[in-house]
Amino acid sequence: MDPERYLGDVFDQLTSAGEQEVSVQIVMRAAHELADADGMCMLSATGERCVVALAQQRQIDLCDLRNSGLYRAAAPLLRGETTGSRTLWGKEDFIALATGEQLRVGVALIVPLHAASSHPAVAFFWQPGRTTDGQGTRTLELLAKGLGLAASAWRKDEEYAARERDQHRVAADLKHRLRNNLAQTRSIIRRSQETAESPEHFALHLDARIGAVGRMQGALTTAGDAGVELEELVRAELIASAVPERSYSMQGPVVRLHIKGAECLALAVHELATNSLKFGSLATPHGHLAVTWAIAEGQLPRLRITWLESGTTIASLAPRRRGFGQELIECTLPYELGARTRLMFSPGGVVCEIDVPLEACAADIKLRPSQAAYGGAR
Amino acid sequence: MGQAVQERPLQGLCVLVVEDDYFIALELCNALRAAGADVIGPARDVQTALAAIRDERIDCGVLDINLRGHMAFEIAAELRARGIPAIFATGYDASMIPDELADAVRLEKPVDLVALCRAVESACL
After folding, report:
1. Within its chain, how far is the Cα of B24 from the centroid?
2. Is B22 at the interface with chain A, CB within 8 A?
3. Does the interface ipTM go beyond 0.85?
4. A45 CB-near residues (< 8 Å, 6+ apart)
5. A-B interface: how many C-beta pairs under 8 angstroms?
6. Which residue of chain B comes nearest to A261, CA vs CA?
7. Residue pLDDT, tens place only, A67-81
8. Which band of pLDDT confidence, cut at 50, 70 and 90, is reported for residue A374?
């Protein structure tokens, strides 16, 4: 047998071997046939665990090497204090296998593996009670390096595949969200069209609604799983409608809304604000808007939001037909969040009560008042 | 939209709609009704949909897959067990659908409403 050609074949096999276990077996077979080695082991860079392969039994095992002389000899190589291979001659050592067996080692060759690999750091080959000639040592070293390269390539493939799976999942989620948002936007456009009084009315309201959806999407993207605070959501809608700070007040505990809750409630607040600016208390200089909320404790705690307009002298008449905003409050909120809602057109302005199961809308609550009652200005 | 439909190809068919977004559900229901179908639902969650399958006559189901984090595959399996065709109207890729439901028609969101009616019609042939 020509050792060089045989070694070439071994490397070819290693590069096509898919699993680390197969790589170990290939190297073991070669180590046995070329250099009479009885076994080998690969030690991880952390030095805690190693893979042991016995040529005769073709067995792969995990063991702890920390208490063995072999590990002590390999430690400087693991720590990068020395480079190159080391041969331990005639020193008897024992490796305790996970099976409970003791592996007696007469001669061991310690070879650092591929530098860039974080996986196997050092390979041991041993030949109980025998010395090995220079040629055999050289062959073992080459085999060890080949194995290191194969293991590192295998490792990289694994990492690459995991990254690719992650990326694929993120892309799929994103695509799903995008398609859903498109469908949602289209349904809002369609419903706005069906409920609009005129093309101008349609264009104006649609523009503002899409603005509200966009604001909420932006806030949610920034906030992530932490959710958006109800107070911030109300404030953002009022600011977007250029409502002066003196004309409204807010009071309630800190409530963080999750995506679905925030989307629904933001649109509801937007519709209420739009209506108020046109017909309600925000349309008059002496009008006032109070938005308050509280948690009603119980087996299923509920979030109760009250939108209370006052001070307007404009007769607040219920519209003749149900517009988009009214449908949103009276139909969408009950359907999507299981809310109970009441929308009343009273002489002082609009009063709207939204009573939602907390778990349908909130990501997190803190049962303490968020400062005393204050207006838009802090 | 509805007025333009001359024929009512879905006349006499009972179609279950499962969708958790109100306006999207409304859009699907209106399109199906305009084509002559009787709409069962819309159901916004798995339990409501399963109750409807138990109690109502249904010829076809139109299902969103993600119902506020719960997957609608149980509903599709229940329909299938009764020999009722299910159509997915979803933002998900085909790869998300389990193998045993892979042959169900999948319409991508935003759903083309004409294609939806056609899909229901051919599923009920």
Report:
1. 12
2. yes
3. yes
4. A78, A118, A119, A120, A121
5. 58
6. B68
7. 777 777 777 777 777
8. very low
